[in-house]
Amino acid sequence: MSENSNTYKIHFLPNDKIVEVNGGSTVLDAAHNANIYINSICGGDGICGKCKVILSSGTVDAPTTKLLSKEEVDKDYIIACEAGITSDLQILIPHETRLEGKKILLDQNEQHAMTWKATLDQANFKHDALVKKICLKLEPPTVDDNVADHERLYQAIMMKQGVELNVMQTGYSILKKLPTVLRQEDWTVTVTLGHRGKILEIIDVQPGDTSNTNYGVAIDVGTTTVVACLLEMETSKIVDSEAVYNTQMKFGEDYIQRIIYAIQNEALDEMQRSIVTDINNLISTLVERNSIILEDITAIASAGNTTMHHFLLGLDPERIRKEPYIPTANFIPPIRAIQIGIDINSRGLLYTLPSVSAYVGADITSGATAIRLDKKEMPTLLIDIGTNGEVVLGNEEWMVCCSASAGPAFEGSGIKHGMRAAKGAIEIIHITKEFEVSYSTIGDIPPRGICGSGLLDCIAEMLRSGIIDRSGNFQKGIKTDRLRKKR
Amino acid sequence: MSENSNTYKIHFLPNDKIVEVNGGSTVLDAAHNANIYINSICGGDGICGKCKVILSSGTVDAPTTKLLSKEEVDKDYIIACEAGITSDLQILIPHETRLEGKKILLDQNEQHAMTWKATLDQANFKHDALVKKICLKLEPPTVDDNVADHERLYQAIMMKQGVELNVMQTGYSILKKLPTVLRQEDWTVTVTLGHRGKILEIIDVQPGDTSNTNYGVAIDVGTTTVVACLLEMETSKIVDSEAVYNTQMKFGEDYIQRIIYAIQNEALDEMQRSIVTDINNLISTLVERNSIILEDITAIASAGNTTMHHFLLGLDPERIRKEPYIPTANFIPPIRAIQIGIDINSRGLLYTLPSVSAYVGADITSGATAIRLDKKEMPTLLIDIGTNGEVVLGNEEWMVCCSASAGPAFEGSGIKHGMRAAKGAIEIIHITKEFEVSYSTIGDIPPRGICGSGLLDCIAEMLRSGIIDRSGNFQKGIKTDRLRKKR
After folding, report:
1. B142, B150, B178, B356, best to mutate vs chain A, most A CBs in 10 Å
2. Domain boundaries, chain B
3. Residue A432 has pLDDT above 70, yes or no
4. Could you report the predicted ipTM of this complex, rounded to two decimals?
5. Using CB atoms, which residue from A143, A179, A327 is nearest to B316?
């Protein structure tokens, strides 16, 4: 594509969003700038062809491609990541290229949570918040009781929590403000205590009783979607939740693509900012909608795969991709959320759930923990199909896990009519003995493509009905005109 | 004193230092700017008269004062803190006003150390450095041993140190650089481990073996003098030492004066910077003289009284002065030295030794620990006379301590011919039955004044010889012309 210094207006439909970009940018770049989510499984490498859009007006600089059929070319389809902008454009994003809005993301998420609810209730976790707020009414000092402010506070915490002095730690900034805070509401204070390994850290000290406003955020940092739940820490009750697409998608849909992008473009910082911005956006939505203040969010816990956690913390992900596949860390110690730019209480902690290895992440360990796989007598199977597919088999005595790339396959990477499990995707297929095909789509609307479970059904039914054999080869002698030789 | 915008040259003798100051500054200000230490017990309040100097040439704007005798006024003595500068000046600092240079400070300090050496050797501490450097040769990862970098490091530390995973903590910045550092010298690294309560913190990870360059600095933050010792952490051998006067003296000689100054002038930050600058100057002298680098100083430990520690950490000292005399903290947790501006390894820790109360500081607890008062069978008395005088009585089963203002009295505050225990001070006095007086001075030079031990001797001898009675009243019937009525 040619570079030039002009700026052009790109008008996206049906979103009706206009964005200005520099000449030489691609249509995919423009879509990202406009915060329009479109399919792009290969991350802009011009391989998957999933980012096809319709050029309603204007001109682009695009190579010829085999990724578009003759019909599509006739209908002015172009590959967004390959199309260099050389004029003002009007772009129509067709159904099959569009990513669904966050409502559906969240619906799916809630549906998942409902499915597990019975199991989760059974699991019956003893609730013990990682970060607690306790209200203390201290005895004011006298000449006969002249204990220093800091030790007075420690003694009160010890009395209430039954912990020892040498397992507590106070930050310098807390120490500095302590005398004032203690005397502000006549020796009634609320202490926020957070766990850091075996140490109990004083995260905050506030005047008066604020113990009823202690919130946490749980985030699922997915390769595709990021979901945040706002919780009351005391009760672990979910107050609200929100989801967005992971804006890192512009660096590659698959996380391996993103590692390559990060290394080749020295873009690790940029990619960290991208996911942190997503999280901050989620948090600010939750905070505004529920009229709480950021200061009252004292902890955030993240369950993501190993690579996503590396991106989130800005840790070098390069060796995850290369043999012998070594992460920087599986057990990431708690850090202050602000250290990576997450806006909660300025001393609030980020707990990153532990991974097992480069390709068995905290999403799996948290899943296995949530269903209490470690308490099952019978060997039990947990399957998590996301961008990666992981399978854990185990019980109270042992667990084994394996993982393989899954998402892009199920979401249509390399499959002409493949798509993600969104509205219009064929998800169930039935083939009769007479080789008649019936199907149903998500949302019961006309089909737009075929999703992962549809593909599995399709292959299973073709095998069952004898269209293919165990090796996957088509049986040529079958009496049906549904099986035709490629023209 | 009049304010004006001219600048003047002040030439100090015998130091032969010239400094330029703005008109309206006092001679005491000018001396501080020139880094000349002169007596000033009241901290520039015009009360003690200890900062008297001789005006050799030029004019100053000074009120009449009772702090100078007629003879002194005739000899052009002026009170430095009261004298506003209105022209270029030549100022002679007389013996009695001069503070000794750091050589004597250090000599005194070493003398003290020698006095205690036998006792200290007896105490036989098991040497266990707070911050250690250990060199680790890690096994490089393979497909069969694909432990993550961070956990590989932890495992190696656990093997070598016998500690558990959940008592260790790694800082975010260490985690970020870890993969590169591990591979830089082919999996040989040096880990710096510091104690924070029950947690072992990874303070630094360096490529290769740097375990033989681990230094610490021990500082005695005195109200008057600040002494720093550079130590090899591995052996606890003292490499070098250095001392300066505490430049906070310009805010008041007595630390109560300094608390008042800090509160009245909102000068806590400024006073913290003052002592931190002193410490940084000491450290940079030690570092240059011994050709080591700041990065290799991984810890600093401070023994000072409670108020000095408050100033050092910038903690609010106000309530130390007022009933019921409550410090912000007696047990100050380790903080990173850089948090208060001390220049050592950027993640090096500052350990502040614990105090007991507002007026029983870490100088006493460290002294009692150094002589192992806690191991004595017989009740033992420890007397520490500094700015405050503290007395600890105790043994292995119990200890009691009391304290009272001492230093200013022994250093001549309120006593016309009083002075600190420097060269020329009368330190021993003997009075015969015939009321003849003999004395000896520090340094065996002609007397310049009388120091604390001289004063004690004087009172004791006067009592013994019957010049005064137990109530301190003079006995008028004594046959000697040495006792005369005030004219």
Report:
1. B150
2. 7-97, 102-126+214-365, 131-207
3. yes
4. 0.75
5. A179
